[in-house]
Design a protein that fits this description.
The protein is of the alpha/beta class. The chain is 25% helix and 25% strand. It contains eleven helices and 20 strands. The structure holds ligand LLP. The site of ligand LLP has 22 residues, from helix 10 and helix 11.
Length: 418
């Protein structure tokens, strides 16, 4: 049996998550103490790490003066939104609910991009009434709704970016690719040319941008650059289109040995291609993924059919990514051990065979009551949590930016909340 070697794991830890005297810490706190007080399952976020990621991205994309619209769908926690508002971040929202959350966190409507393939009329009305900065449009009928909403709200102009489906295939998991021709997202170049040709019938709409988003967790920049070429070809003839929104997609490192593709090539290619354009980006994962983890406790240990099952109190309802995309999240024990590792299955309590959080994973020998952390779950973790099996949504804890205080930012739901 291979030894369970934690030194290997130092690579996945960042400045905010590390072992101190054998226990896993977030900033200045032992995670065991937080779990002891709040219970499990609980998501824990480091605001310091969120803001470090945000500032690093801002700096990386400074050569193209990119405006960062944090993609709220990755994690809409109020404390995270508030911290990003304070940094001057803009936001990418995909529903009326997300817009409301950003406004409640103190964000300005003008700094919001409202995207989405199926906006309701009520959501469009709300966005226009509140004066959101941009609507990313994916459907001709949306323009009628926006025009009518603008008339009703007395808005002189509403700024719109038309979303191009660039028909490129991104290097990512097929379930999170959005830019290929068969996807429901965006419009073809022909449809967009057509809409721009008859823009006179929408006097209150300012057609100011082209939007692309080809997928998430992109393995390289090639497809983005191919899509950009198509967006520029499309925008070229229209003088009023001065903004290109490149969407999200910047990846996070999920495995011990993941190395992220360097961004300097992408940034210099963008700088040379986008001269004279305003550039918007909608990063979600790259800002929050490695700033969060999910703590869970072992309820039972079952040795059956030659396998070891660690049955924990978090399941696919709390963290859907492994069941939905076979996503990999590293599992770290809260107490470091030199015990020999064993290949085991970390599974949840949900009545589905696919409720496996870590499959065939080398783990330390765990006992009932031991706690482990599922790493890099700050993005699309809590955001996709659900209440299947009438399971309460987990609690969320945030550690403040100076790392010196933590608080429950969202209490665990109770059985009454269903
Ligand atoms: N902009 C648009 C239009 C999007 O559709 C998305 C993500 C983003 C920005 C943010 O993308 P990011 O920077 O986070 O890659 N649930 C999946 C991810 C779905 C992403 C959906 N759209 C997961 O857990 O991997």
């Amino acid at each position: 049996m291979p030894p369970f070697c934690l030194c290997r794991w130092r690579m996945v830890l960042n400045a905010s998550f590390r072992y101190v005297d054998g226990s896993l810490w977030v900033d200045d706190f032992a995670l065991g103490a937080i779990a002891g007080e709040v219970g499990t399952p609980v998501y824990v976020y480091s605001l310091r790490r969120v803001l470090d990621n945000y500032r690093r991205l801002r700096q990386t994309f400074a050569p193209v003066s990119a405006q960062l619209h944090y993609s709220v769908k990755a994690n809409g926690n109020a404390a995270i939104l508030g911290a990003l508002v304070e940094q001057g971040s803009s936001f990418d929202c995909v529903s009326g609910g997300e817009i409301q959350r950003v406004l409640a966190a103190g964000g300005a409507a003008r700094q919001i991009v409202f995207a989405g393939v199926g906006k309701t009329r009520a959501e469009i009305d709300y966005a226009v009434e509140r004066g959101v900065g941009w609507l990313n449009v994916e459907n001709a009928l949306e323009l009628d709704y926006i025009q009518a909403a603008a008339e009703r709200a007395g808005a002189e102009t509403v700024r719109v970016a038309l979303r191009l489906n660039p028909q490129v295939t991104a290097n990512t998991h097929p379930k999170i690719a959005t830019g290929h021709g068969g996807a429901k997202f965006g419009m073809t170049a022909e449809v967009i040319h057509d809409l721009l040709a008859k823009r006179g019938i929408y006097p209150r709409i300012h057609f100011a941008g082209i939007h692309i988003h080809i997928g998430s967790q992109l393995g390289d920049s090639q497809a983005t650059l191919d899509a950009l070429e198509k967006a520029l070809d499309l925008a070229g003839p229209y003088r009023q289109i001065r903004t290109i929104n490149l969407g999200g997609g910047l990846p996070a490192a999920y495995r011990f040995d993941d190395t992220l593709p360097p961004l300097d090539g992408l940034v210099s290619a963008l700088a040379s291609r986008l001269c004279g354009y305003h550039v918007l980006l909608e990063p979600g994962r790259a800002i929050v993924a490695d700033a969060g983890l999910l703590l869970t406790e072992v309820l039972y240990v079952k040795r059956q059919a030659g396998q070891i099952f660690y049955i924990v109190d978090a399941g696919m309802t709390d963290l859907l990514r492994p069941a939905l995309y076979d996503a990999h999240h590293e599992v770290l024990p809260l107490c470091k051990t030199s015990a020999v590792g064993e290949v085991a299955q970390l599974v949840g309590p949900v009545c589905e065979s696919t409720d496996v959080l870590a499959r065939d994973r080398l783990l330390p020998r765990l006992q009932v009551g031991d706690r482990v952390a599922l790493m890099t779950t700050g993005a699309y973790g809590m955001a996709m949590a659900n209440t299947y099996n009438a399971r309460p949504l987990p609690a969320e804890v945030v550690v403040d930016e100076n790392g010196e205080a933590w608080r429950v930012s969202r209490a665990r739901d109770s059985w009454d909340d269903g």
